[in-house]
Amino acid sequence: MGIIEATGLRKTFAGEVPVEALKDIGLVIEEGEFVGIMGPSGSGKSTLLHMLALLDDPTTGQITVDGIDVLALSSIQKTSFRLHKLGYVFQEYALLPELNALENVYLPLMMLGAPAKDYGKAAMEMMETVGLGKRASHLVSQMSGGEQQRVAIARALVNHSKILFADEPCANLDTRNSEIVMKLLRQLCDERRQTIVMVTHEPEHRQYMDRVVWIKDGVMDHEEMCGQ
Ligand SMILES: Nc1ncnc2c1ncn2[C@@H]1O[C@H](COP(=O)(O)OP(=O)(O)OP(=O)(O)O)[C@@H](O)[C@H]1O
Ligand SMILES: [Mg+2]
Fold it and tell me: 3-state class of 115 per DSSP?
């Protein structure tokens, strides 16, 4: 069984002219896989990611994550599931500028009620994993975009998230920083068997991925196995 299994996903956004953003998507993602979602602008990539990541509900369809029928969960159960099992990274880093890097990383553990001595240590380990051990006490507002995105990745994974969801995490980064972030994601996949689902526009990101799911007009166009 895949860590994510989705069948018959449809999403229609209501409005004067309803938008059928996803038409009938079926997808299985295996544990430890690094999967990309690619396709033209407006094709439904972010919508699909949001469904799989429990950030929005499909109009119809079924989704199992880590063996749980997630659409059957109450909204409180869903929030708890997200906090315990999922991690998120977006184009905007969404860090708190008045906190230092380490404090940003341990916030999710504080929210989960971990004792202070435990979350400090876990957050520091994650900072080292993303190569920023020496920058832990720096304010994130004084860090580069690439560094801030690595802090965001550390924060997303500090609770040992089973799945990391990323929507264009390199969109605001220059080529060099994009490469650092993509290498880090590949390393997390290789060394920790981290499952990663990532939306991207950049064809060169495929070299870091196991597989790309190509979306076109709300349907799956084809799948591409990548070099890894
Ligand atoms: N909240 C919303 N309300 C109405 N329509 C929406 C909403 N979110 C997305 N859409 C529409 O659904 C379609 C798919 O949008 P989506 O954001 O998933 O595309 P995308 O592939 O991520 O595009 P991009 O590459 O530009 O980020 C688009 O036509 C978009 O306008
Ligand atoms: Mg998008």
Answer: coil
pLDDT, residue 227, reads: 72
Q: The pTM is what? A: 0.97
With a cut of 70, list the residues of the chain below it in pLDDT: 228
Residues 59-75 pLDDT 10s: 999 999 999 999 999 99
13 Cβ inside 6 Å of ligand 1: yes
Residue 228: the pLDDT is: 57
Structural domains of the chain, count: 1
Query: Which ligand 1 atom lies nearest to the CA of residue 43?
Result: 21
**Residue 227, amino acid:** G
Give the CATH number, domain containing residue 38.
3.40.50.300
H-state helical runs in the chain: 45-52, 75-85, 101-111, 116-129, 145-157, 175-192
Domain that holds residue 201: 4-225
Report how far ligand 1's centroid is from the alpha carbon of 205 (Å). 22
Cα of 42 vs centre of ligand 2, distance in Å, is 7
Angle between helices 116-129 and 145-157 (to 10 degrees): 130
Tokens read off for 163? 């799945």
Beta bridge partners of 163: 86, 195
- Token look-up 């997303």 returns 156
- 42 touches ligand 1 (CB under 6 Å): yes
